[in-house]
Amino acid sequence: MDKNYNYGKAGKDLNVDLLNHPEYIEQNATLAFQVAIWRWMMPIKKHQPSAHDVFLGTWTPTNNDTLAQRVFGFGTTMNVLYGDLVCGHGDNESMNNIISHYLYYLDLMGVGREEVGPQEKF
């Protein structure tokens, strides 16, 4: 997780003071798993879908989303999870690493590649 608002929201929903004690996530495997599932399932920002909804295809992109090239697929899922850190910053080593791993596993499983081009962060 990143940003205080993530720790605050997750802590509130999970009834744990993560804002003042983020180390609890490192110290408790059950809590770490709960936080990971929470992050996957919960939209963080207003007008932003959850990564889960994008992944399943239950999210309906708005006109603005389409104009910002946010459509179904891996790119938008990563945008939801990491957009503040990597989207709109040009060539980014962290995102390039994520993309490389993703493409490696697609090839390993024999799954076709999709276009994950540039898009605006949420």
UniProtKB/TrEMBL annotation:
Chain ranges passing through the membrane: none
Gene3D superfamilies, alphabetized: 1.10.530.10
Ranges where the Glycoside hydrolase family 19 catalytic domain occurs: 3-114
Annotated GO MF terms: chitin binding; chitinase activity
The keyword Nucleotide-binding belongs to this UniProt entry's keyword annotation: no
Domain of life: Eukaryota
Name under which the protein is recorded: Chitinase-like protein 2
